[in-house]
């Protein structure tokens, strides 16, 4: 299959798939953009707003402008609906949550909890640039695998790259001789392990900071709300430092082991050659 045919097939695949729109830091939304970003509908957004589940937008003329706060609230509503709660349940919960608390602090906590951990800015490349980067490695299966993993997101005639650092690392590894498909398969395995690590850090915060202080059926109150939001923000770089340090340690250990094992094999082979020469 030619590169052009592969890209056409990819565009067709993406048109048939649910739209994916990630939040950009500080971004403002029209109601249509907000609905797409939250993977919901404009009708739902208006319904949540009418029921008091969603704060009203800022009015600019006749246009309502929404923010990260609205996106965070929509994501929480969606997650609760997926768990089987009704809109009435969620409204009661949010009402109880807001009583005696500063609304700005509450919404600030929602944004912190639902926002991405990485502050890396996405970039855009063309299909032709992607082909230039990876050449014959770009089969249809490989492209779809990269899309499903979220490393490239087709948007019309260009591709959004959520993590330019990952793309750069991938280019370098492929240029060194590692097949792109094998690299993506390994990344998929890494994600499983990273999920376990992340869940461990979340359990630490939940068990020792939230459950211990508020119990399993309550949420922070008053000044504790912004304090918790601030701490969650601090956990992110702290977790990153711990994971990075441990990964570096294990990589050093593993690479050294590979090198020593290879040297041992070479020495063993030389000894066998000498032994054979002496016997001859």
TrEMBL record:
Keyword Iron: no
Pfam families on file: MerR_1 (PF13411)
Residue span(s) of domain HTH merR-type: 28-96
Keyword entries, A-Z: DNA-binding
SUPFAM superfamilies according to UniProt: Putative DNA-binding domain
PROSITE patterns reported in the protein's UniProt record: HTH_MERR_2
The keyword Ubl conjugation is annotated on this UniProt entry: no
SMART domains: HTH_MERR
InterPro entries on file: DNA-bd_dom_put_sf, MerR-type_HTH_dom, MerR_fam
GO molecular function, one term: DNA-binding transcription factor activity
Name of the featured protein: MerR family transcriptional regulator
């Amino acid at each position: 299959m030619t590169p052009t045919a592969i890209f056409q097939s990819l565009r067709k695949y993406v048109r048939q798939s649910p739209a994916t729109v990630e939040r950009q830091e500080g971004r403002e939304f029209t109601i249509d953009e907000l609905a797409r970003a939250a993977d919901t509908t404009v009708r739902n957004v208006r319904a949540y707003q009418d029921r008091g589940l969603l704060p009203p937008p800022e009015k600019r003329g006749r246009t309502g402008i929404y923010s990260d706060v609205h996106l965070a609230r929509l994501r929480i509503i969606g997650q609760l609906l997926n768990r089987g709660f009704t809109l009435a349940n969620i409204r009661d919960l949010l009402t109880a949550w807001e009583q005696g608390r500063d609304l700005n602090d509450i919404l600030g906590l929602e944004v912190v909890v639902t926002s991405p951990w990485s502050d890396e800015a996405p970039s855009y490349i063309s299909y032709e640039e992607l082909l230039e980067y990876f050449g014959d490695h770009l089969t249809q299966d490989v492209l779809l695998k990269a899309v499903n993993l979220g490393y490239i997101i087709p948007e019309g005639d260009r591709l959004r790259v959520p993590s330019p650092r990952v793309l750069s690392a991938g280019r370098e590894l492929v240029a060194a001789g590692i097949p792109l498909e094998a690299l993506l398969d390994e990344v998929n395995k890494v994600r499983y392990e990273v999920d376990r690590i992340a869940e461990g850090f979340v359990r630490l915060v939940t068990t020792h900071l939230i459950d211990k202080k508020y119990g399993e059926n309550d949420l922070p109150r008053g000044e504790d709300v912004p304090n918790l939001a601030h701490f969650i923000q601090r956990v992110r770089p702290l977790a990153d430092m711990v994971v990075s340090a441990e990964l570096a340690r294990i990589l050093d250990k593993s690479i050294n082991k590979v090198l020593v094992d290879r040297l041992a094999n070479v020495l063993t082979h030389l000894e066998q050659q000498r032994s054979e020469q002496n016997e001859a």
